[in-house]
Design brief:
Layout lengths: L7 E4 L8 H15 L6 H20 L5 H15 L6 H14 L10 H9 L3 E6 L3 H10 L8 E4 H4 L6 H11 L6 E5 L2 H11 L2 E5 L12 E2 L10
Parallel strand pairs: 1-2, 1-4, 2-3, 4-5, 5-6
Helix pairs in contact: 1-2, 1-4, 2-3, 3-4
């Protein structure tokens, strides 16, 4: 299916272009060894991923602060492993994680190829809920920042996806219209439904082939976008 009459393409960053799970695992592998935390990094990451997703949803919904997100997801992970960690070490681990996370620069397969393909056909933009400085570092270290005309984050916009305010801010920054824009992201609630509710078409990056409503346009690999855009 070819999508026509679009001029601006908006991407989510984490879990869409930037491989959060792989980069996060590498950061924790280094951190757990550095601070002599007596848990295996593979086991830790397996537990951390769903806990992190739960905390991000609470953060998107405005139920917790960014600091509560950063510490709560770690504390819950260690508790689930039965590992006692004092607040001082937990603080060190959290700060080190935020420092190391954007240093790793693994992207999803096909990310650079599809950005190269799209850059001469559309203006490209980022809409992310991640913190300003961290997201900028991810884009810089992964060497993909130059593809994007604008980068909108929740700190700049004053709203988090799926709130309409962040999409309104992003379109205004990009000098783009709803009708000629499209959003691509991995989260049904934040990226896809958020964009659709605001009046922007959306494509669901469904890497894990999760069940989704048949009305939702989706791709399972980033290179599939070349057939649609």
């Amino acid at each position: 299916m070819k999508i026509h009459n679009k001029k601006a393409v908006f991407f989510d960053l984490d879990h869409t272009l930037w491989d959060f799970e792989k980069n996060s695992a590498l950061a924790f592998e280094e951190i757990l060894q550095k601070y002599n935390v007596g848990v295996g990094h593979a086991q830790f990451n397996e537990l951390y991923s769903p806990i992190n997703a739960k905390y991000w949803k609470q953060y998107r919904d405005g139920e917790i602060t960014q600091m509560q997100l950063r510490y709560g997801r770690l504390k819950d992970s260690f508790n689930l492993l039965g590992y006692e960690i004092d607040d001082e070490k937990l603080h060190l681990v959290s700060e080190e994680y935020i420092r190391l996370l954007p240093i790793n620069n693994h992207l999803f397969d096909g990310a650079v190829e599809v950005l190269e393909y799209l850059k001469s056909r559309y203006t490209l933009h980022i809409i992310t809920n991640g913190p300003d400085v961290v997201q900028e570092l991810k884009l810089k270290n992964a060497n993909i920042g130059h593809y994007f005309t604008t980068i909108t984050n929740s700190e700049k916009a004053g709203h988090k996806k799926p709130h309409a305010g962040i999409f309104e801010y992003a379109l205004k920054a990009a000098n783009a219209d709803k009708e000629t824009s499209i959003m691509i992201g991995d989260c049904i609630e934040a990226d896809v439904q958020g964009a659709l509710d605001y009046g922007i078409d959306a494509i669901y990056f469904n890497e894990h082939k999760l069940e989704a409503h048949p009305s939702i346009t989706q791709v399972n690999h980033l290179l599939d976008l070349k057939k649609m855009l």
